[in-house]
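Hi team, as promised in this morning's meeting, here are the two structures we talked about. I've kept the exact order from the run log so nobody has to guess. The first one is mostly here for context; it's the second one we should focus on when we meet again. Sequence first, then the predicted structure tokens.
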Amino acid sequence: MQKSLQESDKSGLLLVLFVVTGIIGSHLLPINIGGINLFFFRLLLILFAPFVFRNFRLLNFRYNTPNFWFIHFCFFWVVYGLVSLLFIKDFMEGFKAWMALVWGVVIFLMFCQLMLMTGKKMPYYFCLGLLLANIISIPVALWELSTLNHLKGSYITNLPDYALDRQIAIAFLENPNGYAYFMVLSQPFLYYLYTIVKGKFLKSVIILTCLITPYLIYFTDARFSIVVFLVNVGLFGWFMLRRRFNLYAVSISAVLLCLVLIFGGWKFLAEGFKEKLEVSEETSSKETFQIRVNHFKNCVYYTIQTGGLGLGPGTYESIGSFNKPYYTYGNESPHNLVIEVIVNYGFYVGLLLVVFIVASLRNTDTETTWGVCILITTIAFMLLSAQNSTYLKTQVTWIFLSVIFYRIPTEKGVNNQLQVL
């Protein structure tokens, strides 16, 4: 019993390490070997894969659960993408995109396996990892806002001169939308962590992190993330009130809503919020809307042209705005997870992905606080899938997909009132 407990704690600490380094991503020990971008997180994947997968139990899930079929679907997705490489013109770009998919699936499987090995303490360790990732990211974001400097990245390199003098938070993510994406998806788990820990210091840290988050989301200029954040807070508070327990969660919801008023003030509600819902002078709101509409039209066009089989990994992005049937104003990426999958990997792959995510909602136990967190995160994940420039290439997408699909027959053994520390 003691040995089993120790093994689960080791797996849990490893899970924390993977969450934190996954969010930091390529900013920690970046290495390029033969054109392949390796960094500390990917090196960890390679190093620990033999130990984590030595007892591969993910295929032991019940066959009638979404996670069982989604794991098999991931294998099919990788093989289908590999075969597609044989029929595309730009093989190297396609291979890079396919490798990003492979890395994503490896991340998904690694996290699922670690969660399974951690057992009943998985929710605690996963949430702790997200808390630490947020804590590490916050000083970087505040430094960006105060100095107008940023960590190196393609987003900053490609910014026009007029945009370099704006206060904007990116932290370790690939762009501001990506940072907002991470913070919004993290929120439900921070609420959950607050309800299960005993230590006053850790509770205070969680509260402070939750209070700073809406302020930073505001400075990512991710308009839709602001809305989804408020939806998260409202849903969590509603579920807690509906169940008539856990006043902590309700209190957090109320404080966060008040914080939006305090930090943003009337400017946030009036001029500031209006400005966030609009776009800069250089790009009209009509143009921004038209870009997304044209990506959708292009998706429909190429789906028909390929018979629903897709263009092949990375092909849509490599075509270029001027060569697409509908002009996308220099935005090569579709800014939509579903369109990104459908146009490159085919209609049927994209449809299955949507079906699996929606089906996972039915397998969520909303009678527990953890189940409520998973439900809210899944809803937020679906809503935010139409915001970021890319999804398949970012670790955040696959990390949260793993926790969304984490289901095992004994999961109900996770005590809703689990107390740790």
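And here is the second protein, the one for discussion:
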Amino acid sequence: MNDGGRLAPVAGAGDDTVSGFQAQLVQAARDRAGSWDAAAEVLAAPAERTVERLRSGEIATAWRLAARWLEADADLFTADLMSLDVYARAARRRDPADDLSALREDHTAHLAPAGDLADAARQVAELCRREADAWATGDAPAARGLRADERTHLDEHLVPALPDAAASLAAHAETRVGRTLGRLLLAILSVETGTDYTREGDQ
């Protein structure tokens, strides 16, 4: 991240050689896996470890790194990631137990009714990792097949419920961090599907 809070580009993004392009595909798939890992952590029922990672800034860092492959489009995440930075910097003034309780209340009210979306997000992350491995070994047909599998899994297991659940969190969570996380979930889904779900969080 640079001094303005923007995401630094992925190294080698300007390389127009075949090997450079392959490296970009590998990194993009790995970054997308990291993005869905972070989403799964948010979608799961909050635990003490989740609170620790939010308070330390680890989740914000994970999402920031996961958005590198978007280059200029990563600005979609910048404001909300900076909001998570503020949440982390102010953590010393809050009791971790209070943070956990607040996150659990928001999760129960807005995400839990949609079912186990965390497991679906983890499965997308695993498919992304397998895609990265396929690109790394030069198996383009397998990589493309896995990319198609990712989209199918999204359409079947996340698109039916995640937009409404994340929009509810983004618009109506009691905590500011809950609303921020809801917007980040909508941003990830928008990037992955090509449908702008971020507007739903503004309603």
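Starting points for discussion:
The CA atoms of residues 30 and 91 lie 30 Å apart.
Residues 1-15 have pLDDT under 50 and may be disordered.
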